[in-house]
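Troubleshooting log. The previous structure file for this entry was overwritten by mistake, so regenerating from the original sequence record. Sequence copied from the archived sheet and checked twice against the printout by T.R.
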Amino acid sequence: MCPLSANTHGIDFLSFCISDYETKRVIFKVGGDAPPPAMPANIDLTDENSYRKIRYDFSEDVLRLPTIATR
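Regenerated output below.
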């Protein structure tokens, strides 16, 4: 990943969504009207890489889906 300082054009990712491709059921969503994911208690705010990550914890039924969609 690039450091935050490399974003010289001011590009922001405003939302991200993962869904079941066939049923369109939303599996994960962040941004927009979705609440932010929980922040770990031991996050180091001086290390930008530690707060630029999302930890996904999907159930077995999600991992068995034949196809997912992202947007």
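Residues 4-70 form one domain. Archived copy saved in two places this time.
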